[in-house]
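FW: tagging you since you asked about this chain on Friday. Here's the raw sequence from the shared folder, copied in full. Didn't touch anything.
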Amino acid sequence: MGRSASSNIATNASFEKNRGGLPWPVDRGYVLLHYGNNKLPNGTIINISCTSVGADIGTPVKAIFDGVVVSVKNIDDLQIVIVQHGKYFSTYSNIGNVTLQKDQTVKTGQVLGKVLSNDDGIGAFDIYISTETNELNPESWLRPR
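HL: got it, structure written out here
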């Protein structure tokens, strides 16, 4: 169920046009870890390729833009959903209650799943934005909070 070249071009242009204005995937949440280097309380510096978002466990996680589900992966008790927006991808990790299937079309704001607890027992999930070859900073694509 592939998308036409003209459809991909339109999606690319529209996704790019919305840089800095895409909705956050949760209505209320806060950044736990930023894309790039983060200093942990113990002083260790880690580099991550996503934005880790804290939110109440069970909070709906929504698509940031229209697209097509290209993957739903189950890893232990969590799920990962990858949505394609032309040449761009948004990936949502550490979510549960996903009922989507590969090749399913999603709309901006459509619920993809729900926030699960992280290893520290708090509600959190990760969002990645990328192309096939580059990881991008999600916070530069999402509207300011």
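FW: The chain is about 10% helix and 45% strand.
HL: agreed, and The radius of gyration is 15 Å.
FW: great, closing this out.
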